[in-house]
Amino acid sequence: MKKISTLIATVLLILSLTSCHKEVTENTTPKHLIILMKDKSASVSEKDTEKETKHLKSYLAQYMAENTDVVVMDINSNSNSRTNAKWFYYKAPKRQVSNRNKTKKQEELDEVMYQEKVHKTLEATQKKIIKAMFAEASPSNETAIVELVIPISEMLKNYDKASVLVYSDFIQESGFRNFTKGQWAMPSKSYAVDVATKDFERLQQQGSEIDLSKISFVDVVTPNNPQNEKYYVNMPFYWDEIFRLGKYSGNIDWKKL
Q: Which residues form the signal peptide (predicted)?
């Protein structure tokens, strides 16, 4: 009787440990968010769309994996609207479990078929994302970019890490801050940093604490022939400071296609 009791206790312990391990494994799988933003304002030409589409396909192929969500946001006069977010969730197909004995060749064939299914599912999801990203929209007279910091900060609360990709000239032009008026383009780095500090404080007053620390990297793709090259001398310092104040520890990678 004592042996039976000991055996039962051992089995229960094993089951308990297995259950705990499974729970820990499931709960510790990092959730990744890809934030995609496309400038739909009138100041940005559509002539770079083909290159941007090719670039986005490559970006998604590199960074979109299992347990990754994607949100597409437009940059326009209503950038920080609650409705300005199209969500996509990628889940790999479930594997079929079989109790049949299989040869090594059969197992290899099953794996090839499964990977093909994964590829098709991923490709279908990526096509939907690209379609949403470059969907036509009525040109906006405003380019509200810095306002997006608040909704992005809220989104990040549900994720472990994130990446940001933006297709825009990144020239802020809204009621909150207009780069095309006053002393813009910014006359110096110190001027850009000072204005960014003031703007961040104003944004902070609109809601909860802004936290961008979960962002791993930020890529900004600007037009090949931006109308105002002078903006890119000191303007990047403004955005560097906005993200730094939001606790982002990386650099903003500026590029042209």
A: 1-21
Q: pLDDT tens digit string along 163-190?
A: 999 999 999 999 999 998 876 678 899 9
Domains in the chain: boundaries = 32-92+124-256
Contact 189, 233 (CB under 8 A): no
- Using alpha carbons, select from 126, 49, 47, 142 the residue that is nearest to residue 88: 126
What is the CATH number that goes with domain 32-92+124-256?
3.40.50.410
Nearest Cα residue to 212 out of 223, 204, 221: 204
Amino acid at 206: Q
- Per residue in 16-29, pLDDT tens? 444 444 343 444 67
Whole-prediction pTM value?
0.82
DSSP H stretches of helix in the chain: 2-27, 49-63, 104-133, 149-156, 189-204, 231-245
